[in-house]
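Re: that chain you flagged

S.,

Sorry for the slow reply, it's been a week of failed gels. I finally had a moment to sit down with the sequence you sent. For the record, here it is as I used it:
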Amino acid sequence: MILYNLTIKIDNSIKAEWLQWMQGEFIPLIERSTQLSEPKLCKLLDLDEKDGITYALQLFCQNKKQLEDFRTEKEQSLQIKLLQQFPNKLVFFPTAMEIL
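Prediction finished late last night. Pasting the structure tokens below so you have them in one place:
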């Protein structure tokens, strides 16, 4: 099984709007349009939040093939959607991990 993690640091000014959009629109979109499942939105603890709040969106897929398909077919368009919704208000980076 593969864990796909999207770490996102948002500007403090968009916290409420961003959380609502993530939970109401972005996460459901990922679930409908990809093979990634079981989303878990987490807030990173013990970080200085004066420059923004850091979250991690974790999703799972069954194997590397599903991950490759997601990266080829959907990853870029989803990242663009995130940037367009909150221009100049966040930064993010994706990582993938194999669960042992």
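What I noticed first: Helices lie at 15-33, 64-85.

Talk soon,
D.
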